[in-house]
Amino acid sequence: MGSTLFQLLLFGVLAGMANILGGMILFPSKIRDEYRGLLRYLLALGAGFMLSVTFFEVIPKTIILWQKTQSTDENLYVPMLLLLGGYLMTQFFEHTIAPHFHLGEEVTSEHVISSKSAYTGVGGLLIHTFLDGVSIAAAAQLDLRIGFLVFIAVFLHKFPEGFTIGSMVLAAGKGRREVLIATSLIGATTLLGVIGFYLIGANIGFSVAYALPLACGVTLYVAASDLIPEINHHGGKSPLVSLSVFAGVAFFFAVHFAVHELAPH
To answer: Is 70 exposed, middle or buried (0-12, 13-18, 19+ CB in 10 A)?
Structure first.
């Protein structure tokens, strides 16, 4: 099943808008306070869905794709190296270049940080959000149904991502305008990843076989090393937060069944 530019643009725009809405929800104080309580559950749901997409769709499809083009199992070192590279690259940009950034951790005005730290956090996230877009486009080019599942995985963590970035900008003493600019930049980078891979990726030899495992490493890092630790930290003793991770897994299988079994091929 081929993907179309319109469908990819729709995925990219919706993902980017979720970033902006996540940041803008900070300003009506009543909504912000209610959302903060729900944040950990949304993080947990997104983490479960992202882990499921990674292990049940992206990694198996990557292996199959490489086995079709290579004659020996030794060549799987290349995609696995790319996967590890995506994982380590995310660690480098989010927590080495931008050590103050923690996806899902709310930074309020009570915890004031410098403007440099806030903007470094935004900058450290750009590679991650760009590869979010690449992963959607690469998966959709392989199979639009897989692209849709990857889109949902990306979409679910976009609200908390926007909320976190907006909170960091506010904690640096900035206002609504700066939050809108920061979250719009993050959202636009995801859309740029979608468009860039669709229009340019194949022409420069950066094919799905290379893009998919690299983006998969980023997704795996966000789910397992960003979201799960934050869930465990903020969840406290509430078993409902942990159960929300399993709900995310169940949600994946429900959507997976609907997409693969019920939707027309």
So the answer is: middle
